Structures are given as structure tokens and as C-alpha cells.
Amino acid sequence: MAYERVLLGMGNPLLDISAVVDDEFLTKYDIKPNNAILAEDKHLPMYEEMASKSNVEYIAGGATQNSIKIAQWMLQVPDATSYIGSIGKDKFGEEMKKNSKLAGVNVQYYEDDKAPTGTCAVCVVGGERSLVANLSAANCYKSEHLKQPENWALVEKAKYFYIAGFFLTVSPESIQLVAEHAAANNKVFMMNLSAPFICEFFKDVQEKALPYMDYVFGNETEARTFSRVHGWETDNVEEIAIKISQLPKASGAHKRITVITQGADPVVVAQDGKVKLYPVILLPKEKLVDTNGAGDAFVGGFLSQLVQEKPMEDCVRAGCYAANVVIQRSGCSYPEKPDFH
């Protein structure tokens, strides 16, 4: 079967601890609405506080893992996707393994025996989410694990690679190995801008990976931060998308395509110096549960069609469909079967 292990993701597996909180909670822990950051010492007590809430939910997450699970769900083809990352040897790690197996993703976790499985506090206020990631074991991933024959075999087998920008903070070496393999073998390598702080504080490693990126995903806030950090004096998302698509490439096999989501506004797709806008599926406010995982779901839906070599329009439509499903549920979760045609 042509789709066996066609798509490989690498990233930070995190157990989402999701709860509805209030503005006071955000102020108490110095958290901005609708942002994504790494936990500092001042944030650590909030995990316990959230775990004690009656509305708390635990969902196996992490940006890349979410996208891969959604792609697997949309494809409905056994063993189409694989995922690599690092977890701890603990109950959260076991939970993660069980959850991935149920999702049908072929996971190869590195299991760290010193650090606990990473967690991500998902603070939901008025349907918007703010993420505070405590990487712990996810931060312990080493390229030695990737080089092990059974894991490198997944790299050899895959034709498409997707990595969220968050992984740049953990193992740039692993990203580089996969990126170079993709370029040398005419495969498709994709990354996400992921968060403003990645564009700001991990600019050097992001720039090293950029020439290998055949697709760059992101949202409008990340795109504008990228523009500012690179001294482009524009806030215009369409212009920024074109500029990103025209940055130098390591291989001429694929032209770079930039895909930027803008919440309820159209999706911006830039390629060949041109921009095309695709409308999203609008959702009445009362149906919105939370936006956690919306961007990841968009990418997962998009990838599910891309690996089948469908046209751009179908990829974006599938991305919008998946995001629309996820924002009507808590966390990055989905019904048993997709209803996408």
C-alpha cells in the first residue's frame, strides 16, 4: 500500500492539562491570552492548581503529535503516519502511548528515565486558549535515538516530514538530519512557525532549517513577528507570506509554499510570488468550545490531502474542515470518523 508510513512527524509530546480558567488566573501567573510560551519557575504551581479544578481534562497533545493524529484520522488508512519524540517513564507517558495507539499513529518514543513526561497547561478563557508548556522529558530528545536503525527506517520510509517549530528548542540536530535527508531524496520537508517566541528567541536555529522547508505553516501573529524580527517593515500578512516563500532554498526540487491561517479570516497561501486566499468555515460563536489545537488540526487536515497529492484547494479545505471539528470540542479531539468529502 502506497500510504504506509508516508508521513513522519517529530516533536514534543505533551500531556495537555486543559481547564477553563478566568482572567484573574491569567493575571496571577502572568499569562497573555491566546499565546504559547515555555514554563518558567513562576508558572510551576499552576499545574497543580489546574489539576485540582473540577473541569480539568487530560488529552495527549503537543503540536506535532496533534497534527499527525489528525492526519491519521482524516486518512483512515492504517499505519499511514509515524511520530517520534521523548516521554518519561511514568503514568503520563503510559497514557500517551495508549492514546497514540488508539489514534492509529505508529509512535517511537524515546523514554527518559530521569525526567517526567512533559505537560502543557491549556488555560481556556472565553473559548480562546493560552498554552504554557513544561517540556520536562520532551526536552531530553537526542539525535542518537533518531539514528537508531529502527527509527531511521521511519525516516527512510516517509515521503513527507512535518515538525512544529517548538522542536527547534529541543533538538535542532535531529531536524537538520531529517531536513538534509529530505532535500537529498526529493522528499517534502515542512515546518511551522509555531509561536512568536520561536521566531524571536530561536531565530538562528530557525534560519538554519528554513532553506530546507518546502512548506511553512503559521498564523498571522507568528507571521508578523517573523517579519519584525527579520526587519521587514510590513505587517501585511499576504506580503509576509510571499517574502517567506521567496527566501533561499537548499534544494530546487520543490518551490516553497507559505500557508498562513488567520482565525476566522481567509487562509493565505503564497507560492510563485502570488497569493491566493481561501475562505474558512465560519462557526457561530455559541458553538465554539475552545481554540486549543485548531492550528494543529488545520495542518493535520492539510497534510492528509497533501500526502495523497491532492490539489491545494483540497488541502486547505481539509485543513479548515479539521479545524472546524476541533474547535467545537474540548482540546484536540475528534469524533470516530471524519465526514469530509
From TrEMBL:
Which cofactors, by name? Mg(2+)
> To which pathway does this protein belong?
Purine metabolism; AMP biosynthesis via salvage pathway; AMP from adenosine: step 1/1
This chain belongs to which protein, by name? Adenosine kinase
Which InterPro entries does its entry note? Adenokinase, Carboh/pur_kinase_PfkB_CS, PfkB_dom, Ribokinase-like
- Describe its function: ATP dependent phosphorylation of adenosine and other related nucleoside analogs to monophosphate derivatives. Essential to sustain methyl recycling.
Entries under Pfam families matching the protein: PfkB
Catalytic residues, chain numbering: 296 (proton acceptor)
Which GO cellular component terms are attached? cytosol; nucleus
